[in-house]
Predict the structure.
Amino acid sequence: MNANKRVRRSNPAVEITLIVIMLIVIIPILWAIMLAFLPNRAIISRSWDFPFWLGNFRSIFADGTFIAQLLNSVGLVIGTVILCLAIGAFSGYALAKLSPPRWLTLPALALAGIIPLLPPATLVPGFYVLLNNIGLLGTVPGLILVNTLFNLPFAVLLMSSYFSALPDELRESALMDGAHEFRVFWMVMLPLVRPGLAATGVFVGIMAWNEFLMGLTLTSGGLTAPVTVGIAGFLQQYAVTWGELAAAGAVAAIPMILLAIFANRQIVSGLTAGAVKG
């Protein structure tokens, strides 16, 4: 046996800790899924009967409100991701490769650092008045603009790190061959950061899908609200329909779980591409 060959030994303490953490994460999810298939009387009963029941799902889809809220959230995610990727890619490329003047970059970076630190509740009155004045209050486009504002600094800085990892020689060579700056960006640099685009889009999409406060305060609820507000609507003042609440949560989690599964390879390659500068 080669003396230099390292033999990995399992650490029982680490394995037990990981198993405990995994159980802590998985058990509440499994419990919520189980509640989604139980009638309310079985949920609040002291017995351990688990009758399989689909009535909770039929109930949340009965009047079409929850479907409309799901579609609102899908539109919110699509619009926010498109805006953040479009503006984030252009801005990230400019920060990484074009060396804009400090009088422009310093205020922009300061603003990008301040926005995530502000409590969202403090911005609600201003957003309410602004959206009301431009006629977008209570609409999906209005929520898209608000979510884009919150997620854009993250997208810009993330895309800037991906563009910074690309060699400057690629851009210089394309410019020497006669390509103008936009063609260099579109045909040469942007295809090389597609994993970064995928990773940024997934993260922005998850944050937009899970946003609650702005959807609650800037819409009138019902058909105009996103799915997070619709789920909260099952918590009534005098009663909580636990089965419907669990069913709505399970349905709302499916799109993001599928997105994370299908985009997993792109997320990993995007993170590693932006972490090491070539």
User: Anything to note?
Assistant: Residues 274-278 have pLDDT under 50 and may be disordered. The CA atoms of residues 129 and 167 lie 45 Å apart. The longest helix spans residues 65-98. The domain at 61-275 is CATH 1.10.3720.10 (MetI-like fold).
